[in-house]
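Weekly sync notes, structure subgroup
Attendees: PM, AL, DS (notes)

Item 1: joint prediction request from the bench team. They want all two components modeled as one assembly rather than separately. Inputs as received:
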Amino acid sequence: MLDPPDWPGHDAGQHVDVRLTAEDGYQAQRSYSIASTPEDEHLVLTVQRLADGEVSPYLVGELRVGDELELRGPIGGYFVWDVPLGGPLLLVGGGSGIVPLRAMLFHRAALRSSVPVRLLYSARTLADVIYREELIGVEPDHQGADIRVTLTREQPSNWRGYAGRIDRALLEEVAWAPSESPLTYVCGPTGLVEAVASTLVELGHEPRRIKTERFGPT
Amino acid sequence: MAMLDGNAIAGELYDVFGAEMTTVIGVCASCGARHQLGEQRVYVRGPGTVVRCKSCTSIVLVLVEIRGCTCVDLQGLAEIDLRR
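Output from the run, pasted for the record:
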């Protein structure tokens, strides 16, 4: 949670670049999606710790309250959603690709928008589901959002969501009909984004209405 | 090599052009396709950053930093349309 001075506000889906500088002058920079909505008081980043990462282990394990970070942003005008863009909205996320989609989902709810939205989220296990309570907790409403989760690696015995990777059959079931001209945002590892976007095009979705954000290899 | 989207280099583009560039439309010099820079294919792991056309995969933009100076090669773009 950050309080950048002179923060100009952001759009749902935008990211920031975080730059760390070592004492010897070595710099490393990474992009992190903004998890908070434009309405939230603080800027919230969700960082997944990568064991062999240069930046994420510091942000997750070392950073303390009151520390300062070098930020650039908010950045990006392509992978953003706001109410006037309309829908129906399909949000497809894999792993930490849920982060910018969370901002869109909660932004829509904060503005009490009636744009229909479906979210399809793929995670390895239930423990890997980020924002678990918010998304599939006791009373997930989010202004009528339709939230579905698939677990690819293992599912609890009482799991009522989907199992397995997002494939053509699942997209056919969850996605809006192409005739409804949905607006789609896909975010996650490159392989997942590639597979989802190309399958949606095969199913007849308009390529220009499918926006993608690839995080790179998992 | 892992492909990213133009969106991933929005910060670098901002530094070079002084404006948000991911929604700007670039016209590919090879095939004439018009794509927003944010949707182009981007490869960042090579020496420098390479942006390829989403339609024909020709190189449209290259950014290389040499001794603190960023060199920008735009030969692969026939046109940049700044109307958003």
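Discussion: The interface with chain A takes residues 2-8, 10-11, 14, 20, 22-23, 36-39, 84 of chain B (CB under 8 Å).
Action: AL to compare against the crosslinking data before next sync.
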